[in-house]
Amino acid sequence: MTTAINTEQTVATQTYQVYIKATPEAIWDALTTSEWTQRYGYGGRVDYELRPGGAYRAYASEAMLACGAPEVVIEGEISEADAPRRLVQT
What we know:
23% of the residues lie in helices and 26% in strands. It is built from 3 helices and 4 strands. The protein has helices at residues 24-32, 34-40, 62-66; strands at 46-48, 55-59, 72-82, 86-89. The longest helix has 9 residues, at 24-32. 7% of the residues are buried.
């Protein structure tokens, strides 16, 4: 008996669409500035190089660090940045 093994890998893409009663500028600031991410996100700050190919990092909050999280909890790259309408990141 011969068994075929599927070695192909698939890549999943997730797209989200959210409606928020705020201006595009206010939402952009909430996503890309530490002032807002520390207040409403997970409590950590963010750094963005808002250009294609730029880096972004999300840092652990004090509470996350106390639980053993690394200082940088998310690292990625900006694919598209068209303020305040479109932000695509890895």
